[in-house]
Here is the input.
Amino acid sequence: MDSNDHKPAPARRRFVGTVAGGLAAVAAVPAAAQQADPAAGQPPAGRAREAASRYPRPPFQNQSQPWPGLAGKMTPRPDHGETTYRGSGRLTGRKALVTGGDSGIGRAAVIAFAREGADVAINYLPAEEADAREVVKLIQDAGRKAVALPGDIRDEAFCRKLVAEAVRQLGGLDIVVNNAARQHSTDSILDLTTEQFDWTFKTNVYAMFWITKAAVPHLKAGSCIINTASVQAYDPSPNLLDYAQTKSAQVAFTKALAKQLGKKGIRVNAIAPGPIWTPLQVSGGQTQENLKKFGEDSPMGRPGQPAELALAFVTLAADESSYTTGQVYGVAGGAGNP
Ligand code: NAD
Ligand code: MG
Here is the structure.
């Protein structure tokens, strides 16, 4: 489950340095990317089944990190598919932007996209540079181009710059994944401040709107948008009053926009995960008490790992899903969806 035992096929890469300022960029242009080496970065077959059979169950040890948290500091480390996801060219030549691509569910989508043949730009917060560096390397190891675009998506001007930079550095855009989110557990509405309410809505709803609005003019027929919603949209927890509302908003946004963009051939779908073992949960997303038994209530008796969502993202992005739009794909271990 650790990324260190992953021995990818060697890929030649060029590392373009970090640009200081609001939009720092690390771009890698692997020569191998153009030669489509299907073996690049691919783990041996059979690994995924083995990994799933030993996924961790509660009780989990106490742990807490300052927001936004790092996957690299979690115990146990989440499985994002580093040693297991095998691609088969389903997204060859595609160009994707994934917010929150450094860790958790976003990282799992990024690894899968790259191993399916896509070039990928990731957005994350500057404090997550350590996680992001690992992801940049994983994209490069798959023989694809990696573009790192750190910055805070609560800022509309940054969201516009983010999309413009992704388009410029990738040479176009045809997959947009709005996956970044803020989740902060608060037991009572009386303790829910306007500042927190605003923070959650800015990150989860406004940024999705701003990024999508900036991206749509660049998307051609066959492109798609995937939003990471949640079971919280349908079965909200009492301590996630603000967050759950944003997840419902994302579902409505997905369905309405799918109707707007259908005739243009642009598909819009969402994924609704259940409890997944990610930094969001250990950096204020859950109480310590909930964290210890995280996933226990799921019919599977454990939380999902980010790797278990990867194929859902690939499926929704792939051309074969060309008649699938306005849908919400649940990956919740058996509970919580409509
Ligand atoms: P995560 O912490 O790995 O990912 C969330 C990411 O959001 C962070 O990595 C960070 O880069 C990004 N982010 C947060 N605020 C930001 C800001 N202001 N500017 C830029 N980036 C910012 O956790 P995750 O659980 O993988 O979360 C990914 C998505 O999955 C979120 O939309 C979350 O709501 C959703 N989700 C998670 C679970 C779960 O149990 N973990 C369940 C359902 C849905
Ligand atoms: Mg992160």
User: Anything to note?
Assistant: Confidence is low (pLDDT under 50) at residues 1-22, 24-35. Residues 69-331 form a domain with the Rossmann fold fold (CATH 3.40.50.720).
